[in-house]
Amino acid sequence: MTDFDGTNFDEIDFFRDTTFVADPYPFFDHLRAQCPVQRESHHEVVMVTGYEEAIAVFHDTATFSSCNSVTGPFPGFPVPLVGDIGALIDEYRDELPFSDQLPTLDPPIHTAHRALLMRLITPKRLSENEEFMWRLADRQLDEFAANGECEFISEFASPFALLVIADLLGVPEADHEMFRAELATRRPGRAIGSAEQTMTHSPLEFLYARFTEYVEDRRRNPTDDVMTGLALATFPDGLLPEIIDVVRVAVNLFAAGQETTVRLLGGALQMLGERPDLRDHLRAQRDRIPNFCEEMLRFESPIKGDFRLSRVAATVGGADIPAGSTVMVLTGAANRDPRRFERPAEFDAERPNARQHIAFGHGVHTCPGAPLARAEARISIERILDRLRDLRISETEHGPPDARRYDYMPTYILRGLTRLHLEFTAEG
């Protein structure tokens, strides 16, 4: 089908073509206009663009397995998906990439491992971590505020998100700079969502090695620190997990939380740099910052979509989905479904139902780090508005307002800027 601007949407491979990297929303709208559950022609992936339909898939864990949630149609399933799909998933899931990560697990194993994680992300721990965020935000700003300019992604968003999670998990502060140095150029989520991605855990090797050392040490020599709590946390039935299970939980939080928070922060500062009126509004009314963050998550969801594999035949949104189908729930599209959000292509910082977005997923796989991400965004924006005046987009790097040049993550899962050059006047 050809749109008014001559784009033939059906000829473009969403997963391998870069046409929609900068702006995927026309493609999402094209799919939804045909049906909120629509099969694309290049890889036979069922694309879910409707809000209610996305909720239905997320909640039906009996029908839709998360075993392929990270990789989708690539590199494929180890054997042909014929016959009893559920049995094939159980038999071969360990051969799938990222099979040891929380997003790919299904109940009841997922239930136990998620419960282990939630024993670590307690209200008390989040409160302590938030105190660290305020100090860290100032520390990051101190590194470049006097310069009057920065590349926000590498100089603030990435190190901030990384060190917040390090603190939450109890990584000794003496090791923070080591983590920053090791992960600065090979962030855990960097390869996720590319058809040509290397299906190994190589970006995660450092994290696995370090947390294995931490957990082994604290089990031998427990103290009263957070890392000991991580090492000694038990499953709901009271059993002490294997060390590798604890390490997987910690690594998952790094891999999932860091990259998405970086994209959220980048999008938020891009919006404030482009909208001086909004920037000044939030500076004057700080209580509006949380809703601004929710609308940012709706408007530019850091995750374009999440995959599922249908165990049995199902019907969603009036569309039949055969057993063995790869399904992509396009959260970025569902968050712009006009049946749920009025004028979805407009950014409205005062949108009353902004928090109904599903940028953090929905159901049993709802992102456990959602409160963490919200706090990171709120605190970062507050301190930036306090300390950086006349915040604006660098025209030297990104072009004039009517001809901006932005580079976005070239993946079919992650959505966000790779760099953001800002200019400003430092306070005091």
List the helices and strands and how they pair.
Elements: H1 25-34, E1 37-39, E2 46-48, H2 51-59, E3 64-65, H3 85-92, H4 109-118, H5 123-142, E4 149-151, H6 152-168, H7 176-183, H8 205-220, H9 226-232, H10 243-274, H11 276-284, H12 289-299, E5 306-310, E6 314-316, E7 319-321, E8 326-329, H13 331-334, H14 370-387, E9 388-393, H15 395-398, E10 421-426
Helix pairs in contact: 4-10, 5-6, 5-14, 6-7, 6-10, 8-9, 8-10, 10-11, 10-14, 12-14
Describe this structure in words.
By secondary structure, this protein is α+β, with helices and mostly antiparallel strands. It has a single domain (43-426), classed as Orthogonal Bundle (Cytochrome p450). It is built from 15 helices and ten strands. The protein has helices spanning 25-34, 51-59, 85-92, 109-118, 123-142, 152-168, 176-183, 205-220, 226-232, 243-274, 276-284, 289-299, 331-334, 370-387, 395-398, and strands at 37-39, 46-48, 64-65, 149-151, 306-310, 314-316, 319-321, 326-329, 388-393, 421-426. The strands form three sheets. The chain has a five-stranded mixed beta sheet with strand order 1-2-8-5-3, sandwiched between helices. The chain has a three-stranded antiparallel beta sheet with strand order 4-10-9. A hairpin with a 6-residue loop joins strand 1 and strand 2 (46-48). Helix 4 (109-118) packs across helix 10. The longest helix has 32 residues, at 243-274.
